[in-house]
TrEMBL record, chains A, B:
Protein name per UniProt: Putative competence-damage inducible protein
Annotated source species: Mesobacillus boroniphilus
Family annotation (InterPro entries): CinA, CinA-like_C, CinA_C, CinA_KH, Competence-induced_CinA, MoaB/Mog-like_dom_sf, MoaB/Mog_dom
Family the UniProt entry places it in: Belongs to the CinA family.
Gene3D superfamilies: 3.30.70.2860, CinA-like, MoaB/Mog-like domain
Domain MoaB/Mog: 4-170
SMART domains for the chain: MoCF_biosynth (SM00852)
Transmembrane region(s): none
Pfam families on file: CinA, CinA_KH, MoCF_biosynth
């Protein structure tokens, strides 16, 4: 089965909001084994909605509409679809009662246009709205299935999960099971990674291999189908093993994770604490580290040393180090890392010194980054990176490299 | 003129990413006075892309494609469009040189598939990519105009602003001039702001008033049309004055700015330096401050004190203060702010202590935030905020309040 998602709302075409509903529904449909071939966004205009619906009927079996179920004049999804299908709108008593209750509960006076929200297309299955007023609908004709969902994600998402999914599963019969797994890589470009697994991508059928690049990372989504979940998982395992043989050194995690999250997990397992002294990154590493709740068990505090004065005054770097090697140097980065750990009594210290741009610094071009890393019991160490991109991109990638360097350094201690 | 935006990429249909490009371009086109009637998303599949392109040709004059310009096998936007238009792909020497330079600069070996990125549709105007490798294109046929832009927003947005916009403006002839201005507010909710200017919104026609809320801020976009730019500006001035009369106290800046940018400008004008000691925000304030190039003239460094140990050890807070009042207190925040300034020899010190959640701390519920502010020559001061939302939302809003508090405090010194 394949599907199209049609979002109705001029606010999307004006760029006032972004179509997160399409993302949510696409993920859900993928999990149900339904291929989404198109997303469409159309404004609050009956003719253009009719046009979009006509096109979707020809190319999609399941059509999901979001938005346009509210009480105002703009809200015309139901009316337009009903008219196209030659159906009437009828009052749903249960929806009407729940709308009245809603107004009672919130001590507001119900205006007449709110009654409109209780009208549903005749013959449709009503999908209850537990988080708002407008109910959804599911309707099957000889050629297509239609689902109408409200626009606000806070209403749409729970409605789909609780009632919509079941309506779709009920109609799709005994479909093949879909399993998918995302492999995350850092430190290798998309083209380079794809070159290394080109033959696997060319042969792909089950599982499929979908690469995606973003924010300096590359992910591969492996999706397998089989009547049996276990077999689908085994198909993925096999391809994953082949991929890991080729590019496993850049792999860092599965599905929804990040380098910082993986680092945090590792530190918790090893019961280690971490501190940082950040010049180039200005606090970005520590901010990301503390964005996860529970960071307090592995992070006490750290320093931001944007100027040489702060490197010397706050982080106690020897002025001679800066004089002799510069602030943008491995020597300075190593001292910053050691001192960050010492000043906070932490097991690990990391530092970032470099040039975010746009101007050069101490003769180094933008993108030159030194990361210092001190792990208790190991010799202090630094790495030089040459990164490209905007100021923000350089800082973000430096933070990711920092995470990766610590993870690698901690793996070495196991050897 | 009307437009359709077609995003190409299976990752969108799988729900891996959300189509923010459509939002960005819709806003930009609205400013150019171009109506966007449809957004379409299609996967990396030549037949379905052909289908989407065929539909768009019938219903839109300007068609903008995003995505599918990269080096991998998936990337087929150029090939498909060229084939549909009966055109060849030709090598763009300038793009090729810049791709080679990119690899040279980053010390990476260029794989053969990267050459593909330098191919452009014959007869098109090449749009340079200053932030990545794949160039964009603009092409006019008898019936339609086509623009091809890369998928990553970090490449697409600057390309459109620097080169794409001009290509479109050049073709659109003598249209009415569009002027628009964004007013930015912080510290007031969208509904409250809208209520205060409800009559202005109801009467709007030229200029139009479009409110938008996000990240704790509310913006009003005023857009006026006239044959003459000056008249359009004057129409905006008039409505702006009426709005400022009502809600001016929450206004902080125009167009693409931020509270942090406004704070940075103010500090530069007044030639003041700033430091921070961050508990709750974990470095977010300093990271944002240093995200702007040139921050080094007003920021030397600061501290992150996530634990009481770091508040005492790094920021030299008197242990008795924490014992007596708690770390989440005005007293502790004030001492942190004073010490941050003193330790870095800065004119201003700010601190953030509070509860980001999900758990309570020292008996305070999540959302309790104390901001300490020390300005040289003024008595130290703290403010208690009660914020709501997720962990990240609380931290972000605390940083914004911090900026606003400093801006207000510095205005008082003028009085």
């Amino acid at each position: 089965m394949n599907a199209e998602i049609i979002a109705v709302g001029s606010e999307l075409l004006l760029g006032q909001i972004v179509n997160t509903n399409a993302r949510f529904l696409s993920r859900q449909l993928a999990d149900l084994g339904i291929n989404v071939f198109y997303h469409t966004v159309v404004g609050d205009n009956p003719d253009r909605l009719k046009n979009a619906m006509g096109i979707a009927r020809e190319r999609a079996e399941l059509i999901i509409f979001t938005g346009g179920l509210g009480p105002t004049k703009d809200d015309l999804t139901k009316d337009t679809i009903a008219a196209q299908l030659g159906k009437q709108l009828v009052l749903d008593e249960e929806a009407m009662t729940s709308i009245e209750l809603y107004f009672e509960k919130t001590n507001r006076v119900m205006t007449e246009n709110n009654r409109k929200q209780a009208l549903v297309i005749e013959g449709s299955t009503v999908l209850k709205n537990d988080h708002g007023m407008a109910p959804g609908m599911f309707l099957a004709t000889a050629d297509n299935k239609y689902m109408l969902l409200p626009g606000p994600p806070s209403e749409m998402e729970p409605m789909f999960l609780k009632y919509g999914q079941a309506a779709i599963s009920g109609m799709s019969g005994n479909q093949a099971k879909i399993e998918s797994r995302v492999l995350r890589f850092f430190g290798i470009g998309e083209a380079a990674l794809e070159t290394k697994i080109e033959d696997l991508i060319d042969q792909q059928s089950n599982p499929t291999i979908a690469p995606l690049a973003g924010d300096g990372e590359v992910t591969l989504r492996l999706t397998a189908r089989d009547d049996d979940n276990g077999t689908a998982q085994a198909l993925i395992d096999k391809v994953e093993a082949e991929i890991m043989d080729r590019v496993g050194e850049y792999f860092y995690g599965y599905d929804e994770t990040s380098l910082m999250l993986e680092l945090s997990k590792l530190l918790k397992i090893k019961n280690l604490t971490l501190s940082a002294a950040e010049s180039l990154t200005g606090g970005m590493f520590q901010q990301e580290l503390t964005s996860v709740s529970g960071a307090s068990s592995l992070f006490k505090g750290g320093l931001v040393c944007y100027s040489n004065e702060a490197k010397i005054g706050l982080v106690k770097v020897n002025p001679e180090t800066i004089e002799k090697y510069g602030a943008v140097s491995g020597e300075c980065a190593e001292e910053l890392a050691m001192n960050a750990a010492a000043l906070t009594n932490s097991d690990i210290g990391i530092s970032f010194s470099g040039v975010a741009g746009p101007d050069s610094l101490e003769g180094h071009p933008p993108g030159t980054v030194f990361i210092g890393i001190h792990v208790k019991g190991l010799p202090v160490h630094s790495e030089k990176l040459t990164l490209s991109g905007s100021r923000t991109a350089i800082r973000k990638r430096a933070v990711k490299f920092g995470c990766q360097i610590i993870i690698n350094r901690l793996s070495e201690t196991r050897k």
